[in-house]
Amino acid sequence: MAQFSRVSGSVGLITLQNPPVNALSAAVRQGIVDTVNKALQEPEVKSVVICGQNKVFCGGADIKSFRGVMTGPPLIPMIHAIEASTKPVVAAIEGIALGGGLELALACHYRISHTKARLGLPEVTLGLLPAAAGSQRLPRLIGITAALDLITTGRHVTAAEALQLGIVDHVTDQNTVDVALKFASSVAGKPLDARRISLYPCPPSDDTDALFEEAMQRVRRSARGAIAPVACVQAVRAAATLPYAQGLEREKELMATLFTSGQARALQYSFFAQRAVGRWSMPSGAQWDTVEPLPVQKTAVIGLGTMGRGIVVALTQAGFSVVAVETHEKQLTQAKQAIEEMLIRGAKRRGVTPEHDTITYSHSMEPVANVDLVIEAVFEDMVLKEKVFQQLSAVCKPGTLLCTNTSGLDIDHLASKTPNPELVVGMHFFAPAHVMKLLEVVYGRQSSPRAVATAMQLGKKMGKVSVAVGNCLGFVGNRMLKPYMNQAFFLLEEGASPELVDQALEEFGFIMGPFRMSDLSGIDVGWRIRKEEGLAVPDQRTGQIPRMQKGCRYSPVGDLICEQGRFGQKTGQGWYRYDKPGGRVARPDPWMQTFLNQYRATHGLVPRRIDPKEVLERCLYALINEGFQTLEEGIAAAPEDIDVIYVFGYSWPQHRGGPMFYADMVGLEKIMDRLEHYHQAHPDVPSLQPCNLLRKLVAIGSPPIHKWSQVMKTLRSQL
Ligand SMILES: CC/C=C/CC(=O)SCCNC(=O)CCNC(=O)[C@H](O)C(C)(C)COP(=O)(O)OP(=O)(O)OC[C@H]1O[C@@H](n2cnc3c(N)ncnc32)[C@H](O)[C@@H]1OP(=O)(O)O
């Protein structure tokens, strides 16, 4: 809806009304058309202000409506009618002007913004482009380079930057609508042609071809196969090279392709999935809207290795006071310096003053006594963690929440070492913890709903996308990674090279394939865990690590690589070779080829040609199958939880939605058939056997992803 009122006799005020973000639903668009007509027809009205209810201008098109048939007046004619108005129209921007919201403002003759407003064209993040003339107007207003930046990244700008770029005419910290009304009154009757952006020529650049060539290359490099950023460059190019009307036609054409693409569907699903994970629930029925989090102001981080340092930075940047504990004096000094540097760099990037006075460094636990919440981030070793939890239990005030940053150890076991297991939860951060957006909040059998609510809220305040998951080995993310990595190892045994496997998965859209990723994070990390699990241990009789363990196929290739001291980038050699220890550029290593040939010969494995399709199917479908298993067990509450974890923690390409969304797109029946096919070929790999939930979903006709929860409920109630 949009409401019309007349202010001071001669200014028509149009207020968009569609909480919470005044999205341009069919009713709002109809309201704008009607109220603009009214303003134009009423002779007393000499100028017009458009604003949004509740100090929010407009969050753009109603994304929910993209799923159905579009009804109501179309956006473009509405926007053109505003620009063509003979009475000046002023946009009073408070809160946000995003997507169609900013395009609406660009059709107005003047834009006045509150200092705290944020503006942007984020359509690209939804797999679209600004197709209500935004791709044609913005370059005409602010130039090609700046428009390309905003449109291809979708980033939001502050009012100050918008003023500097020329997107808005004036910024105020007063009541924006009052300022706009006064201004509208002052420009009544003034000529408007110079204010109609569609009439502007696109500002020329020195070498338009080179500029677009460079932009296209940059975008293709970072897009990982996403098509919207490429279409955005093409649309801006149309603005720079074609008359406005033809540019609009091109914009429409490009949008038509994007709108119906699976990528747009995936990205829009991902938008809502990110919000859905905030509405967490536990098997007990406790959930986000019924549980009050505990108040947290003072925090502590125990252990200042890479993870601990990142967590201290993230907590400090979120405004918490932090006691940073490291028992080794030398490590404490190094950590302090590294943390200060990270804070300075972060503050510089955000244009604020670094906040280090809120950190207390200590080599003892004493200052932790009065904190509200502790995050333990010591080495991934259960005995060490148990010891730390016992110390914390002795020193902390009653009611302190004890969180562990383990990437997969048993939360229940750790909780059992404290007198208050209900106050123990896992907070699994991803490295680097001050950068990566994902946080898995892991509840154990005894974790109280308040403890979970508190960790979830803390994550939100730290700017993380937090997902509540149940306790099991590896939780959701690392648990699903295991069958994926196993398949990658098996493929090496059967004839693939690390390059072939990585390339297939990187072409799919992962930033790095499993081997380049493992070189980056350190191959020895998994080796240590496998040794602790009793897997990477030579048989006393043969002296070799068995290739069958507990009745299942096991590949020791990663263990054998580690035995050679090849730990990845840090040692300059891993699955690839690097020019020096710590080097970043991975090059295929002839040594690896020889090693794999010898390994296959030793075990009587005849190498065969493996194509990228098999790599994708085996690695991804095994991972997806494990995802279904976590849903079946209730470790993950919903497919959105898994998808958010994979997009934000494991570089799953966002334009493919996440593993479970991808499974829905591929078709559950196909996934099940291919898994069965591979399981027949590899009966000693149980993770290739389709799990119950997948079978059940296929049996009832493969319902779409939003209906899976219902089946999961039925399945659990039958157990
Ligand atoms: C014809 C095609 C034309 C396309 C042009 C477009 O305009 S495409 C849409 C462009 N707009 C956007 O991409 C904005 C998307 N929204 C956001 O980035 C953020 O929601 C926000 C506006 C910055 C607000 O963030 P905040 O953290 O304050 O709140 P939430 O994100 O939790 O949002 C609150 C609820 O509002 C829902 N919502 C937000 N934007 C839209 C939208 N454009 N359409 C529909 N619904 C929207 C959001 O889903 C939240 O509701 P939940 O029920 O909690 O999910």
Automatic annotation (TrEMBL):
Gene Ontology cellular component list: peroxisome
Highest taxon of source: Eukaryota
Subcellular location: Peroxisome
Ranges where the 3-hydroxyacyl-CoA dehydrogenase NAD binding domain occurs: 299-471
CDD domains found in the cross-reference section: crotonase-like
Keywords (A to Z) from UniProt: Fatty acid metabolism, Isomerase, Lipid metabolism, Lyase, Multifunctional enzyme, NAD, Oxidoreductase, Peroxisome
3-hydroxyacyl-CoA dehydrogenase C-terminal domain segment(s): 474-578, 615-701
Keyword GTP-binding: no
Annotated coiled-coil segments of the chain: none
Catalytic activity: (3E,5Z)-tetradecadienoyl-CoA = (2E,5Z)-tetradecadienoyl-CoA; (3S)-hydroxyhexadecanoyl-CoA + NAD(+) = 3-oxohexadecanoyl-CoA + NADH + H(+); (3E)-hexenoyl-CoA = (2E)-hexenoyl-CoA; (2S,3S)-3-hydroxy-2-methylbutanoyl-CoA = (2E)-2-methylbut-2-enoyl-CoA + H2O
Gene Ontology molecular-function annotations: (3S)-3-hydroxyacyl-CoA dehydrogenase (NAD+) activity; delta(3)-delta(2)-enoyl-CoA isomerase activity; enoyl-CoA hydratase activity; NAD+ binding
One biological process term in Gene Ontology: fatty acid beta-oxidation
Entry annotated with the keyword Protease: no
Known EC number: 1.1.1.35, 4.2.1.17, 5.3.3.8
Pathway terms, separated by semicolons: Lipid metabolism; fatty acid beta-oxidation
Quaternary structure and partners: Monomer.
Alphabetical list of PANTHER family matching this protein: 3-HYDROXYACYL-COA DEHYROGENASE, PEROXISOMAL BIFUNCTIONAL ENZYME
Protein family according to the UniProt entry: Belongs to the enoyl-CoA hydratase/isomerase family.
Protein name per Swiss-Prot or TrEMBL: Peroxisomal bifunctional enzyme
Gene assigned in the entry: ehhadh
